């Protein structure tokens, strides 16, 4: 089981690790749009296809990220966390996901063996982690915190809108909103009794 310390740890990428499975994508404008009430239904369809494709290999599938928080502005990309027995064993899940339109984009051994598969239409980031992964727990906690704390949801929405202005790379966008994100995480971790 993941410890509070592991859940609270902010990820810093390994500078020696090249995570891109294919070429790094070309810069494109980061767009944050108002909440779309169709996102949960879109997620539901995606989840059903993932579960059908993977069967028992899909230990858990959850809607994460900003599109999972009612009322929160977001990039129009559905984030999904998929739990599999062992992300390293790509043969157990990647071919089945490729068959339904996903492409393996990132392989990050230094970050809980994270794998990222993407799909263009609808736009999806499918994050693959193993059981009891601290990052998956952290994602779930943050989603649920924003669902139950309107002030932090709105604060995060403002930070996202400001961060997206004129930005051409998601990593720059993420860095720009990091201070607000970490303030919210600190409140969330205190409320959970971690601090």
Automatic annotation (TrEMBL):
**EC number(s) on file:** 2.7.1.24
**Which class of enzymes does this protein belong to?**
transferase
What this protein is called in its record is Dephospho-CoA kinase
List the Gene3D superfamilies. Answer: Beta Polymerase, domain 2
What UniProt keywords are attached to this protein's entry? Kinase, Transferase
Q: Which InterPro entries match?
A: GrpB/CoaE (IPR007344), NT_sf (IPR043519)
**What would be one Pfam family of this protein?**
GrpB
**Which one of the record's GO molecular function terms can you name?**
dephospho-CoA kinase activity
């Amino acid at each position: 089981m993941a410890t509070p310390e592991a859940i609270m740890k902010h990820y810093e990428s390994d500078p020696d690790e090249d995570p891109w499975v294919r070429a790094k994508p070309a810069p494109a404008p980061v767009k944050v749009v108002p909440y779309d009430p169709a996102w949960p239904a879109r997620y539901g369809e995606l989840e059903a296809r993932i579960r059908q494709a993977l069967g028992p290999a899909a230990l858990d599938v959850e809607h994460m990220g900003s599109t999972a928080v009612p009322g929160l502005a977001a990039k129009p990309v559905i984030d999904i966390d998929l739990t599999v027995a062992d992300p390293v064993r790509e043969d157990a899940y990647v071919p089945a996901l490729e068959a339904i339109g996903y492409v393996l984009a990132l392989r990050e051994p230094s970050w809980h063996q994270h794998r990222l598969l993407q799909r263009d239409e609808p736009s999806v980031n499918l994050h693959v982690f193993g059981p009891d992964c601290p990052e998956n727990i952290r994602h779930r906690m943050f989603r649920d915190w924003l669902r139950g704390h309107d002030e932090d949801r709105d604060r995060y929405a403002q930070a996202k809108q400001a961060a997206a202005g004129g930005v051409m790379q998601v990593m720059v966008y993420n860095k720009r909103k990091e201070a607000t994100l970490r303030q919210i995480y600190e409140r969330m971790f205190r409320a959970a009794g971690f601090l």
